Protein backbone atom coordinates (compact mmCIF):
# COMPACT_ATOMS: atom_id res chain seq x y z
CA UNK A 1 0.00 0.00 0.00
CA UNK A 2 2.89 2.37 0.74
CA UNK A 3 4.48 1.54 -2.60
CA UNK A 4 1.14 1.96 -4.39
CA UNK A 5 0.64 5.37 -2.78
CA UNK A 6 4.09 6.51 -3.98
CA UNK A 7 3.33 5.34 -7.52
CA UNK A 8 -0.04 7.09 -7.36
CA UNK A 9 1.75 10.30 -6.29
CA UNK A 10 3.93 10.27 -9.41
CA UNK A 11 6.84 7.91 -8.71
CA UNK A 12 7.65 6.22 -12.04
CA UNK A 13 7.30 2.43 -11.97
CA UNK A 14 10.60 2.14 -13.87
CA UNK A 15 12.36 3.84 -10.93
CA UNK A 16 11.09 1.14 -8.59
CA UNK A 17 12.16 -1.59 -11.01
CA UNK A 18 15.64 -0.07 -11.30
CA UNK A 19 15.99 0.12 -7.51
CA UNK A 20 14.92 -3.51 -7.13
CA UNK A 21 17.20 -4.48 -10.00
CA UNK A 22 20.12 -2.97 -8.09
CA UNK A 23 19.54 -5.62 -5.41
CA UNK A 24 20.22 -8.43 -7.88
CA UNK A 25 16.96 -10.27 -7.13
CA UNK A 26 15.99 -12.63 -9.98
CA UNK A 27 12.42 -13.55 -10.86
CA UNK A 28 10.62 -10.44 -9.55
CA UNK A 29 7.72 -8.87 -11.43
CA UNK A 30 6.31 -5.49 -10.28
CA UNK A 31 3.22 -3.89 -11.77
CA UNK A 32 0.74 -1.12 -10.98
CA UNK A 33 -3.00 -1.00 -11.46
CA UNK A 34 -5.83 1.42 -10.72
CA UNK A 35 -8.49 -0.11 -8.46
CA UNK A 36 -11.49 1.05 -6.43
CA UNK A 37 -12.21 0.55 -2.74
CA UNK A 38 -15.65 1.76 -1.59
CA UNK A 39 -15.76 4.33 -4.44
CA UNK A 40 -12.23 5.55 -3.64
CA UNK A 41 -9.75 5.28 -6.54
CA UNK A 42 -6.18 4.29 -5.80
CA UNK A 43 -3.12 2.48 -7.13
CA UNK A 44 -2.20 -1.07 -6.26
CA UNK A 45 1.35 -2.35 -6.69
CA UNK A 46 1.19 -6.16 -7.03
CA UNK A 47 4.58 -7.86 -6.64
CA UNK A 48 5.04 -11.38 -8.03
CA UNK A 49 7.98 -13.19 -6.41
CA UNK A 50 6.87 -16.75 -7.17
CA UNK A 51 10.02 -17.28 -9.28
CA UNK A 52 12.36 -15.52 -6.84
CA UNK A 53 14.47 -17.25 -4.17
CA UNK A 54 13.89 -16.95 -0.44
CA UNK A 55 16.28 -14.92 1.71
CA UNK A 56 17.67 -15.09 5.23
CA UNK A 57 18.02 -11.88 7.26
CA UNK A 58 21.77 -11.74 6.52
CA UNK A 59 21.20 -12.22 2.79
CA UNK A 60 18.68 -9.36 2.74
CA UNK A 61 21.03 -7.01 4.57
CA UNK A 62 23.91 -8.00 2.29
CA UNK A 63 21.77 -7.38 -0.79
CA UNK A 64 21.00 -3.83 0.37
CA UNK A 65 24.59 -3.13 1.41
CA UNK A 66 25.89 -4.32 -1.96
CA UNK A 67 23.43 -2.32 -4.09
CA UNK A 68 25.93 0.32 -5.22
CA UNK A 69 23.41 1.90 -7.62
CA UNK A 70 21.28 2.98 -4.65
CA UNK A 71 22.20 6.11 -2.72
CA UNK A 72 23.87 5.77 0.67
CA UNK A 73 20.79 7.44 2.18
CA UNK A 74 18.46 4.78 0.73
CA UNK A 75 20.71 1.91 1.82
CA UNK A 76 20.98 3.31 5.35
CA UNK A 77 17.23 3.78 5.86
CA UNK A 78 16.32 0.46 4.23
CA UNK A 79 18.82 -1.30 6.50
CA UNK A 80 17.28 0.39 9.56
CA UNK A 81 13.79 -0.83 8.58
CA UNK A 82 15.02 -4.38 7.98
CA UNK A 83 16.90 -4.44 11.28
CA UNK A 84 13.75 -3.30 13.12
CA UNK A 85 11.87 -6.14 11.45
CA UNK A 86 14.47 -8.78 12.26
CA UNK A 87 14.90 -7.62 15.87
CA UNK A 88 11.15 -7.94 16.41
CA UNK A 89 11.06 -11.43 14.91
CA UNK A 90 13.99 -12.42 17.13
CA UNK A 91 12.15 -11.22 20.24
CA UNK A 92 9.03 -13.13 19.23
CA UNK A 93 10.91 -16.38 18.61
CA UNK A 94 13.54 -15.97 21.34
CA UNK A 95 16.41 -16.30 18.91
CA UNK A 96 19.36 -14.32 17.57
CA UNK A 97 18.42 -11.96 14.70
CA UNK A 98 20.97 -13.67 12.40
CA UNK A 99 19.59 -17.11 13.21
CA UNK A 100 15.83 -16.59 12.88
CA UNK A 101 13.96 -18.46 10.16
CA UNK A 102 11.63 -16.14 8.26
CA UNK A 103 8.36 -17.50 6.94
CA UNK A 104 6.30 -14.98 4.95
CA UNK A 105 8.92 -12.28 5.55
CA UNK A 106 11.60 -14.43 3.91
CA UNK A 107 10.18 -13.87 0.44
CA UNK A 108 11.73 -11.33 -1.91
CA UNK A 109 8.76 -8.97 -1.69
CA UNK A 110 9.99 -7.89 1.77
CA UNK A 111 13.06 -6.45 0.06
CA UNK A 112 10.94 -4.99 -2.76
CA UNK A 113 8.61 -3.25 -0.30
CA UNK A 114 11.33 -1.83 1.95
CA UNK A 115 13.76 -0.69 -0.75
CA UNK A 116 10.98 0.46 -3.10
CA UNK A 117 9.37 2.67 -0.46
CA UNK A 118 12.59 4.19 0.87
CA UNK A 119 13.96 4.82 -2.63
CA UNK A 120 10.59 6.21 -3.76
CA UNK A 121 10.45 8.76 -0.95
CA UNK A 122 13.92 9.97 -1.86
CA UNK A 123 13.06 10.21 -5.56
CA UNK A 124 9.99 12.32 -4.78
CA UNK A 125 12.12 14.71 -2.71
CA UNK A 126 10.55 13.85 0.65
CA UNK A 127 12.78 15.13 3.45
CA UNK A 128 10.64 14.51 6.54
CA UNK A 129 7.96 11.92 7.26
CA UNK A 130 5.05 12.28 9.66
CA UNK A 131 2.50 9.53 10.29
CA UNK A 132 -0.90 8.98 11.82
CA UNK A 133 -1.33 6.43 14.65
CA UNK A 134 -1.12 2.90 13.28
CA UNK A 135 -4.39 1.13 12.50
CA UNK A 136 -3.99 -2.51 13.52
CA UNK A 137 -7.36 -3.93 12.48
CA UNK A 138 -9.51 -6.46 14.30
CA UNK A 139 -7.88 -8.06 17.35
CA UNK A 140 -8.47 -11.80 17.32
CA UNK A 141 -7.07 -15.27 17.71
CA UNK A 142 -5.39 -17.37 15.03
CA UNK A 143 -7.51 -17.97 11.92
CA UNK A 144 -5.76 -21.24 11.09
CA UNK A 145 -3.95 -23.98 13.03
CA UNK A 146 -0.42 -22.85 13.83
CA UNK A 147 -1.17 -19.29 12.79
CA UNK A 148 -0.69 -16.07 14.74
CA UNK A 149 -3.25 -13.88 16.39
CA UNK A 150 -3.86 -10.35 15.15
CA UNK A 151 -2.11 -7.99 15.65
CA UNK A 152 0.85 -10.13 14.59
CA UNK A 153 3.40 -10.54 17.42
CA UNK A 154 6.18 -8.98 15.31
CA UNK A 155 3.99 -5.97 14.52
CA UNK A 156 3.37 -5.35 18.21
CA UNK A 157 7.07 -5.78 19.05
CA UNK A 158 8.05 -3.19 16.41
CA UNK A 159 5.47 -0.72 17.69
CA UNK A 160 6.47 -1.28 21.32
CA UNK A 161 10.18 -0.83 20.54
CA UNK A 162 9.52 2.46 18.73
CA UNK A 163 6.88 3.85 21.09
CA UNK A 164 4.58 4.57 18.14
CA UNK A 165 0.91 5.26 18.95
CA UNK A 166 -1.89 2.99 17.74
CA UNK A 167 -5.44 3.94 16.76
CA UNK A 168 -8.34 2.57 18.82
CA UNK A 169 -10.31 -0.44 17.66
CA UNK A 170 -13.34 0.41 15.53
CA UNK A 171 -16.56 -1.56 15.21
CA UNK A 172 -16.35 -1.54 11.41
CA UNK A 173 -13.02 -3.43 11.61
CA UNK A 174 -14.96 -6.58 12.60
CA UNK A 175 -14.02 -9.46 10.35
CA UNK A 176 -11.27 -7.59 8.47
CA UNK A 177 -8.28 -9.04 10.33
CA UNK A 178 -4.80 -7.53 9.89
CA UNK A 179 -4.45 -3.94 8.64
CA UNK A 180 -0.81 -3.20 9.61
CA UNK A 181 1.77 -5.82 8.67
CA UNK A 182 5.19 -6.22 10.31
CA UNK A 183 6.87 -4.80 7.18
CA UNK A 184 4.53 -1.80 7.13
CA UNK A 185 5.09 -1.18 10.83
CA UNK A 186 8.88 -1.40 10.39
CA UNK A 187 8.82 1.10 7.52
CA UNK A 188 6.56 3.63 9.21
CA UNK A 189 8.20 3.53 12.64
CA UNK A 190 11.73 3.90 11.25
CA UNK A 191 10.88 6.58 8.67
CA UNK A 192 8.46 8.78 10.64
CA UNK A 193 9.95 11.59 12.74
CA UNK A 194 6.67 12.22 14.58
CA UNK A 195 3.21 10.68 14.81
CA UNK A 196 1.04 13.72 14.27
CA UNK A 197 -0.36 15.89 11.50
CA UNK A 198 1.86 18.95 10.95
CA UNK A 199 0.72 22.25 9.44
CA UNK A 200 1.11 21.58 5.71
CA UNK A 201 0.58 23.34 2.41
CA UNK A 202 -0.53 20.27 0.44
CA UNK A 203 0.29 19.93 -3.23
CA UNK A 204 -0.22 16.25 -4.05
CA UNK A 205 -2.03 13.17 -2.70
CA UNK A 206 -1.17 9.55 -3.44
CA UNK A 207 -3.61 6.74 -2.65
CA UNK A 208 -2.34 3.19 -2.17
CA UNK A 209 -4.81 0.32 -2.41
CA UNK A 210 -4.66 -2.82 -0.27
CA UNK A 211 -5.48 -6.33 -1.37
CA UNK A 212 -8.47 -6.56 0.99
CA UNK A 213 -11.76 -4.97 -0.05
CA UNK A 214 -14.03 -4.80 3.02
CA UNK A 215 -17.55 -3.49 2.56
CA UNK A 216 -17.50 -1.24 5.64
CA UNK A 217 -14.63 1.11 4.72
CA UNK A 218 -12.13 1.82 1.91
CA UNK A 219 -8.93 -0.14 2.53
CA UNK A 220 -6.56 2.56 1.29
CA UNK A 221 -3.48 4.42 2.50
CA UNK A 222 -3.24 8.14 1.73
CA UNK A 223 0.11 9.84 1.21
CA UNK A 224 0.06 13.64 1.65
CA UNK A 225 2.89 15.55 -0.01
CA UNK A 226 3.44 19.18 0.89
CA UNK A 227 5.54 21.79 2.64
CA UNK A 228 5.44 22.55 6.35
CA UNK A 229 4.18 26.01 7.27
CA UNK A 230 3.90 28.32 10.26
CA UNK A 231 4.46 26.72 13.64
CA UNK A 232 5.83 23.53 12.09
CA UNK A 233 8.98 25.28 10.89
CA UNK A 234 11.91 23.96 12.91
CA UNK A 235 13.04 26.46 15.56
CA UNK A 236 15.85 26.80 18.07
CA UNK A 237 15.21 27.44 21.82
CA UNK A 238 14.94 31.20 21.17
CA UNK A 239 12.05 30.61 18.79
CA UNK A 240 14.02 31.52 15.67
CA UNK A 241 13.93 29.17 12.67
CA UNK A 242 16.83 26.72 12.77
CA UNK A 243 18.66 26.32 9.45
CA UNK A 244 18.47 22.64 8.50
CA UNK A 245 21.70 20.74 7.98
CA UNK A 246 22.81 20.66 4.35
CA UNK A 247 23.01 17.27 2.70
CA UNK A 248 23.64 15.62 -0.65
CA UNK A 249 20.68 14.92 -2.89
CA UNK A 250 21.31 12.28 -5.54
CA UNK A 251 19.91 11.90 -9.08
CA UNK A 252 19.20 15.54 -9.94
CA UNK A 253 18.69 16.88 -13.48
CA UNK A 254 18.91 20.40 -14.91
CA UNK A 255 16.33 21.37 -17.55
CA UNK A 256 16.84 24.53 -19.66
CA UNK A 257 15.39 26.34 -22.65
CA UNK A 258 16.14 29.64 -24.43
CA UNK A 259 13.15 31.96 -24.95
CA UNK A 260 12.92 35.20 -26.92
CA UNK A 261 9.14 35.42 -27.26
CA UNK A 262 7.84 34.84 -23.72
CA UNK A 263 6.15 37.54 -21.65
CA UNK A 264 6.84 38.14 -17.98
CA UNK A 265 3.42 36.72 -17.16
CA UNK A 266 4.21 33.52 -19.03
CA UNK A 267 7.54 33.15 -17.26
CA UNK A 268 6.00 33.68 -13.82
CA UNK A 269 3.22 31.21 -14.58
CA UNK A 270 5.72 28.62 -15.82
CA UNK A 271 7.84 29.05 -12.68
CA UNK A 272 4.87 28.31 -10.42
CA UNK A 273 3.86 25.29 -12.51
CA UNK A 274 7.41 23.92 -12.35
CA UNK A 275 7.44 24.19 -8.56
CA UNK A 276 4.05 22.48 -8.43
CA UNK A 277 5.44 19.67 -10.60
CA UNK A 278 8.22 19.05 -8.07
CA UNK A 279 11.10 21.29 -9.16
CA UNK A 280 13.71 21.94 -6.47
CA UNK A 281 14.57 25.38 -7.88
CA UNK A 282 13.61 27.53 -10.88
CA UNK A 283 15.24 30.72 -12.20
CA UNK A 284 15.49 33.09 -15.18
CA UNK A 285 18.71 34.42 -16.70
CA UNK A 286 18.96 37.28 -19.22
CA UNK A 287 20.80 36.20 -22.39
CA UNK A 288 21.54 37.50 -25.90
CA UNK A 289 20.18 35.39 -28.74
CA UNK A 290 20.66 35.46 -32.51
CA UNK A 291 20.67 38.87 -34.19
CA UNK A 292 21.44 40.29 -30.71
CA UNK A 293 17.86 39.93 -29.60
CA UNK A 294 17.42 39.88 -25.80
CA UNK A 295 16.12 36.60 -24.42
CA UNK A 296 15.64 34.61 -21.25
CA UNK A 297 17.18 31.31 -20.19
CA UNK A 298 14.60 29.39 -18.14
CA UNK A 299 16.25 26.79 -15.87
CA UNK A 300 14.87 24.25 -13.42
CA UNK A 301 16.49 21.72 -11.09
CA UNK A 302 14.53 18.64 -10.15
CA UNK A 303 14.72 14.94 -9.18
CA UNK A 304 15.55 12.72 -12.14
CA UNK A 305 12.37 10.76 -11.41
CA UNK A 306 10.32 13.84 -12.33
CA UNK A 307 12.20 14.70 -15.55
CA UNK A 308 9.27 13.91 -17.88
CA UNK A 309 6.77 15.83 -15.75
CA UNK A 310 9.01 18.93 -15.59
CA UNK A 311 9.74 18.78 -19.34
CA UNK A 312 5.99 18.71 -20.01
CA UNK A 313 5.61 22.01 -18.14
CA UNK A 314 8.32 23.60 -20.31
CA UNK A 315 6.59 22.43 -23.48
CA UNK A 316 3.04 23.17 -22.38
CA UNK A 317 3.41 26.48 -20.53
CA UNK A 318 6.12 28.29 -22.53
CA UNK A 319 6.54 28.99 -26.28
CA UNK A 320 9.61 26.75 -26.50
CA UNK A 321 9.98 23.99 -29.08
CA UNK A 322 12.43 21.94 -27.03
CA UNK A 323 14.15 21.41 -23.68
CA UNK A 324 17.76 20.59 -22.88
CA UNK A 325 18.25 18.09 -20.04
CA UNK A 326 21.50 17.07 -18.41
CA UNK A 327 22.24 15.16 -15.21
CA UNK A 328 23.70 17.08 -12.30
CA UNK A 329 24.49 13.91 -10.36
CA UNK A 330 24.54 15.15 -6.78
CA UNK A 331 23.38 18.44 -5.34
CA UNK A 332 24.48 19.85 -1.99
CA UNK A 333 21.49 21.72 -0.61
CA UNK A 334 19.61 22.64 2.52
CA UNK A 335 16.37 20.67 2.88
CA UNK A 336 13.51 22.95 1.84
CA UNK A 337 15.68 25.62 0.21
CA UNK A 338 12.74 27.20 -1.61
CA UNK A 339 11.73 30.33 0.30
CA UNK A 340 8.27 31.78 -0.13
CA UNK A 341 7.02 33.68 2.91
CA UNK A 342 6.72 31.17 5.74
CA UNK A 343 6.71 28.16 3.42
CA UNK A 344 10.44 27.65 3.73
CA UNK A 345 10.93 24.06 4.77
CA UNK A 346 11.15 21.00 2.58
CA UNK A 347 8.67 18.58 1.17
CA UNK A 348 7.10 16.37 3.80
CA UNK A 349 4.77 13.41 3.83
Automatic annotation (TrEMBL):
Pfam families (alphabetical): Ni_insertion
Signal peptide boundaries: none
Keywords recorded for this protein, A-Z: Nickel
Region (Disordered): 329-349
Bias kind Basic and acidic residues: ranges: 337-349
Signal keyword on record: no
Keyword check for Repeat: no
PANTHER family, sorted: NICKEL INSERTION PROTEIN-RELATED, PYRIDINIUM-3,5-BISTHIOCARBOXYLIC ACID MONONUCLEOTIDE NICKEL INSERTION PROTEIN
Protein name per its UniProtKB record: Nickel insertion protein
Organism: Geodia barretti (Barrett's horny sponge)
Amino acid sequence: MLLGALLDAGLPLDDVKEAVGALGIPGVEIAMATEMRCEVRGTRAPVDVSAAPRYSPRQMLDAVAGAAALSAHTRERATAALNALFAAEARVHGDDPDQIHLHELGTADTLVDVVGVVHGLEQLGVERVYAAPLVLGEPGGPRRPGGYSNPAPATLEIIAASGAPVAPERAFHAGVGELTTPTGAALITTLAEEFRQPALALNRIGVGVGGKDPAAFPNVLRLWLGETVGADLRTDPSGEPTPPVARWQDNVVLLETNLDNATGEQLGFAMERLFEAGALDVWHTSIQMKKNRPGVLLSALGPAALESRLAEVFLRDTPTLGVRVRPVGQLRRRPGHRDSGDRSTGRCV
